[in-house]
Amino acid sequence: MKNEKKYLFDDPKNVKRVLYILYSCCALLLILDFVIHRHVMHSWENLWGFYPLYGFVGCVILVLVATWMRSFLMRDEDYYEKADMNDSAETTKEPLTKNIASKTGGHHVDD
Amino acid sequence: MWMIEIPPFIPFFIGALIAAFTRGVLRNTLMIIVPIVSGLHLWMVPEGIHLQFAFLDYQLSPYRVDKLSLMFGYVFHIAAFIAIIYSLHVKDTVQQVSAMLYAGSGLGAVFAGDLLTLFVFWELLAFTSVFLIWARRTPSSYVAGMRYLIIQVLSGVILLVGALFYAVENGTLDFGYIGLNGIAGWLIFIAFGIKCAFPIAHNWLTDAYPEATVTGTVFLSAFTTKVAVYALARSYPGTELLVYIGAAMTCFPIFFAVIENDLRRVLAYSLINQVGFMVVGIGIGTALAINGAVSHAFNDVIFKGLLFMSMGAVLHMTGKINGSDLGGLYKTMPKTTILCIVGAASISAFPLFSGFVSKSMVMSAALEEGYDWIWLMLLFASAGVFHHAGIKIPYFAFFAHDSGLRASDPPKNMLFAMTIAACLCIAIGIYPSALYALLPYDTGYNPYDATHVLAQTQLLFFSALAFVWLNLKGMYPPELRSTNLDFDWIYRRAMPIVFQNMFSIIWKTDRIVRDKIKEKLSYSFAYLAGKNNRLSGLLSRNHPSGSMAMWVAVMLGIYLLLSFVK
Predict the structure, then answer these.
(1) Contact B245/B279 with Cβ under 8 angstroms?
(2) In a domain? residue B386
(3) B74, B121, B463, B522: which has the fewest C-beta neighbours closer than 10 Å?
(4) SS (HEC) of B458-489
């Protein structure tokens, strides 16, 4: 691994550069809000920075809610497989009815 | 015209037959030729009903061509063509044959002019596609395929019952506008809804698609749900209920997509999200909205196919598809990375990419018709889809932390298929008029005005900013090996447990009751026997053999007497 070629984003500087480009694009888009006259169909669109704010806040809420959902939705990777295995193990061992019958001695009408 | 109009499913079914009996280069060549020839033929077929015959008392028209069906017919040919190229390296005959049959069934369904033909192809879609899931040949793909098949067949059965009711109510099997009136309307609506992955009926999709083979998922993502979208567009345009169902479909899957680890399952959730936009469009029902829904279906087949292909390439080359196992692949799979980003930009509806020119129609229509809250939900979903499909998919597969995997770019045929799809995404994005010319209505819509472009770009860039900010703050949920419970928990866990417990209780009670009764009976027998303890009494337990012999002799004597009487 040591001799491996350096790739584009192995250098943290390049990552920083990409981020700076993103920041400046965002800033530019905000400024454009003043410059470009938009013909709006909805009153909220008139609010300054409606779309940027909605996009940002929406995504943050999305991620926070999704993270919170993990607390009650997340299970082990083999959650369903494990259950299936247990089931099949149980049924192959012995049917439930036989156990009772053998405990009480003699055979039941169902057996 | 000098040639006969052949319904497009026939070339594909013939192609399947050829694929079954040929091998190697010959099979590959013939399989590529089928969608090209069939597509060119379809291009020349004029609109109208080309095949019609009477069956019992009903008029069946298995081949009806109009603008709406043509749109889906074209895109299905494109999808089949791309997916066939993508799967040329596959040697598995089962997959190749079922893929051809599946594509043919999809085409059969969209050109069906009556409900009976639709039903036949509806079921064929299920039976042919399930082999693309089973072909993975793992235990989990087998059970997932089973669940998929059960749900799909159920949808078909409901459609058949609905069609029969419809025939009784209206005296025709014509597959046209149906609407939500009467039991037939509702039954057919539910059947379409199951295949369209309506909420709580959606888990067949997220369950089965990620379990299918690398190439199988590419086929699967193109046909089934789009046939359902087509069917809704034909039979339920302007049904208000669809607006709310569709809006729910755009929003809830994105939460699951954010926390899902299997990247193909993330795409399956985002497929539901995209279908949601189409369903909203159909529900609004204006010319602009229907155009938006149909063109979005057209674009979605291509860009979702591209995304599934790029994730398929990752799975094919590394054998892994979980976000937690991947990362840093851009180093050795640069072409796949770029193609995936094109797909991601298209699904996120960046200006100059295909998603932008179709999704904005649905959004504009929602505003025009005064669905303010729906519009806000769609806007949220647009930001969300960029978040999970636009950023998450490429980021966790190709960038993020270095997983140490050094897989190379996939085989040439896969790259070529992805390139075609990527070129189409960009071409439609840059020159949408070509797509608009095919649409059912002429609305003179132009997506590239300053307002739209600015609004969408702002929305997307600030969503990206949110992703960066959350990541830098360490608040972004890490990819974890996990299963997330969804509605399928109800029928995979809750219902089996409830039924098991219920039956074990029923059996136990049944046994106890019967034991009690048996006990009571034997007690009463013993009691009666005790009362009549004499030998050979009427109700006594013991009878000497002598008395038996005597009674036999008496009976024989009676027989003898009777024979004399006669």
Answers:
(1) yes
(2) yes
(3) B522
(4) HHHHHHHHHHHHHHHHCCCCCCCCCEECCCHH
- Does this model's pTM top 0.90? My answer is no
Please state, in angstroms and rounded to a whole number, the distance separating the CA atoms of residues B417 and B421.
6
CB within 8 Å: B458 and A52: yes
Q: Could you say which residues from 168 to 207 on chain B have a Cβ atom under 8 Å away from some Cβ of chain A?
A: none
Tell me how far CA of residue B209 lies from CA of B39, B307, B310, in angstroms: 27, 13, 15
| Residues 366 through 405 of chain B touching chain A, CB cutoff 8 Å | 367-368, 372, 375, 379-380, 383-384, 387, 399, 404
The residues near A71 (Cβ < 8 Å, ≥ 6 apart) are none
Reported ipTM: the value is: 0.84
Supply the mean pLDDT for chain B. Answer: 92
Is residue B81 within 8 angstroms of chain A, CB to CB?
Answer: no
Give the model's pLDDT for residue A105: 47
B306 falls within a domain: yes
Range of the domain at B291: 237-476
Domain count of the fold of chain B: 1
Residue B403 lies in a domain: yes
User: Residues B139-167: pLDDT tens digits?
Assistant: 999 999 999 999 999 999 999 999 999 99
Q: Is residue B247 part of a domain?
A: yes
Query: In percent, how much of chain B has pLDDT > 70?
Result: 98
Candidates A33, A38, A56; nearest CB to B465: A56
Residue B450 phi, psi (nearest 5) = -55, -40
Chain B positions in Cβ-Cβ contact with residue A45 (cut-off 8 Å): 455
Contact flag B383-A96 (C-beta cutoff 8 Å): no
